[in-house]
Amino acid sequence: MASLSIAAQDDRQPAGQQNRYLEVGKNLDIFNNVYKHLDLLYVDTLDPQRTITAAINGMLRSLDPYTEYYPESETKRLEQMITGKYAGIGALIRQHLRLNRPVIDEPYAGMPAAEAGLRKGDIIISIDDTLMQGKPIGYVSSHLRGDPGTSFLLKIVRPTASPSAVTFDKKGRATGGTEMTMRITRRNIKLSEISNVLLLADSIGYIGLTQFTEGCAREVRKSVIDLKNRGAHSLVLDLRGNGGGSEMEAVELVNIFVPKGQTVVENRGKVAAASRTYRTQYEPVDTLMPLVVLVDGETASASEITAGALQDLDRATVLGTKTFGKGLVQLPIDLPYNASLKITTSKYYIPSGRCIQAINYTKGRTDDRRPASLYGDRVPDSLTHVFHTRAGREVRDGGGITPDVVLANDTMPNIAYYLSTTGLDSTEVLFDYVVDYISAHPTIASPMEFHLSDAEWADFCRRVSESGFAYDALSKSKFDELVKVARFEGYYDEAREAFDALERQLHHDVTNELTRHRSTIQKILEMDIISAYYYERGSHEVSLTDDRQLLEARRLLRERHLKN
After folding, report:
1. pLDDT at position 198, please?
2. What is the DSSP letter of 397?
3. Distance CA 495, CA 72 (A)
4. Which 3 state secondary structure label does DSSP give 435?
5. Which of 147, 206, 150, 156 is closest to 178 using CA atoms?
6. What pLDDT does residue 8 have?
7. Low-confidence ranges of the chain (pLDDT < 50)
8. In what helix (H) or strand (E) does residue 294 lie, and over which residues does it extend?
9. Distance of alpha carbon 342 from alpha carbon 472, whole angstroms
10. Which pLDDT value is given to residue 77?
11. d(CA 62, CA 425)
12. Tell me, what's the pLDDT at 9?
């Protein structure tokens, strides 16, 4: 953790500052008295931790969404955010909505869950003596995690076919699956920051980076050296979906590609201790290798420092869609009684001098139900300012990093979204099919060679049809609302034919949609199956084969290589 040196109040402070300190003291005194009277007179006994935590969080709601309070019970969550480490079994779990039970979605390679033999579709019955039926995923995760070296008994049911075919009697005994109990020992889990390192067929290296946790720049440096040794003449750095993390890791990553002594980012805060300039400190690996950085709307924070600095220094071509626009820097502060505060202390400015913060949070937050990106007011394009890269190219502040080459990836058809998105009841038919497939196939071909046969695809389509799968419930609910309004305002009968025609259009022909979008849906199915045998890295490699943005990056790099 860290601390800031804040000037104490004394007589040398300006009068306005002294008045502000008086206001702070007065309001803290009021707060103390309010709580004392509540604790003394309120009809029910107050829980101090719960009540004070609610008060603190209420105060923080008036600020930006990144300033957060962590009581002692949640400091491990903050530590995991910073380091990427936690102690547990190393598996992704999900709620099977039809069973109302948690299930294993994906064990991570080389982790306790995989070593114990857990696999996709295993239904979690109990952890030690605690039953998990109906429990939220957060509750289940908290029981799977713990101190490294501790162990627990995990009771599961492994479905014979699909999880939905498993039934439980009143005593909890399962039919349609095999009950298994295993002892698993927790250990420190460090999720890999690198999704894949590949040497593509055209001698272009590819590195996918998912987060900026401690040590990630060192791993990227090793990967760049390895790819160069294997013959890579250029490189794609994929930061899509990377929400950021450690600022220092971003500086060290940029240092791989630019000389020592270059300014990468400046922190500018209210107090001197929060303001600092970060420069590259080491000898680079390669300052000439052509480089493309892939970004999207979920590229944020340290990822934007990396992409923006490489763009400002004219070291890389940035390709994709505009980034998130998080130009705020947080610092974790130790508080008494093992609590912590992650506080926004400054804004960051990349080499051209621009700050890429996209949202003005001065009005605070008013609705916790909205995602953080919607809090406050987004800076309009008309109020952004022009800056220049080292070579004189125009770039702008105020709204994330705008790529040098703007190119959106292919959109997912609605039917594919509803079949594959976790948390929707409609996704269970795809999940169940994959689990059934795994049960029937001990092994499959290598990731790049595996494909479902026509007969297997037809079987999946049959299951979708028999399940009663439907989607686009939102459009139907909006239609129903429109009908109610039309009836209320008295023009429904006159427009009945138009309403009936529209209602018919809202009913999708699932069979035709499956045929029309077979290539997309079948690839989703295949990647889900591949991940069960070859883990995330295997399915990720397959996902890149027809990645529109990656294909364009490779085209640009091939052209540049030919010109050289």
Report:
1. 96
2. -
3. 61
4. helix
5. 156
6. 43
7. 1, 3, 5-11, 366-375
8. strand 291-295
9. 39
10. 75
11. 36
12. 44
Retrieve residue 314's tokens: 């004219």
The H-assigned helical ranges of 45-150 are 48-60, 75-83, 112-115, 137-144
Q: Within the chain, what is the greatest distance between any pair of CA atoms?
A: 84
Q: What pLDDT, on the 0 to 100 scale, is given for residue 489?
A: 85
What is the predicted pLDDT for the residue at 473? 59
CB 404 within 8 A of CB 291: no
- For tokens 């008036």, name the residue: 62
In degrees rounded to 5, what are phi and psi of residue 410? -60, 140
What whole-number distance in Å separates Cα of residue 340 and Cα of residue 70? 5
| Two tokens, residue 377 | 């007011």
Give the angle 107-160-535 at the CA atoms, nearest 5°.
Answer: 20
pTM: 0.84
SS (H, E, C) 455-524: HHHHHHHHHHHHCCCCCCHHHHHHHHHHHHHHHHHCCCCCCHHHHHHHHHHCCCCHHHHHHHCHHHHHHH
Which tokens belong to 209?
Answer: 């980076």
Phi, psi dihedrals of residue 217, rounded to the nearest 5°: -65, -35
Strand order in the sheet with 405-406: 194-199, 204-209, 234-238, 291-295, 317-320, 405-406
Q: What is the pLDDT of residues 325-368, one digit of tens each?
A: 999 988 888 989 888 999 999 999 999 999 988 887 776 554 44
Tokens of 248: 């220092």
The answer to whether residues 396 and 354 touch, using CB atoms and an 8 Å cutoff, is yes
Instruction: Specify whether the CB–CB gap between 325 and 400 falls below 8 A.
Output: yes
pLDDT of residue 84: 64
Residue 443: HSE in the Cβ half-sphere, 13 Å Cα cutoff: 3
Give the pLDDT of residue 426. 63
In 3D space, the residue among 335, 301, 400 whose CA is nearest the CA of residue 78 turns out to be: 335
Give the per-residue pLDDT at 518.
Answer: 96
User: 470: how many CB neighbours lie within 10 A of its CB?
Assistant: 13
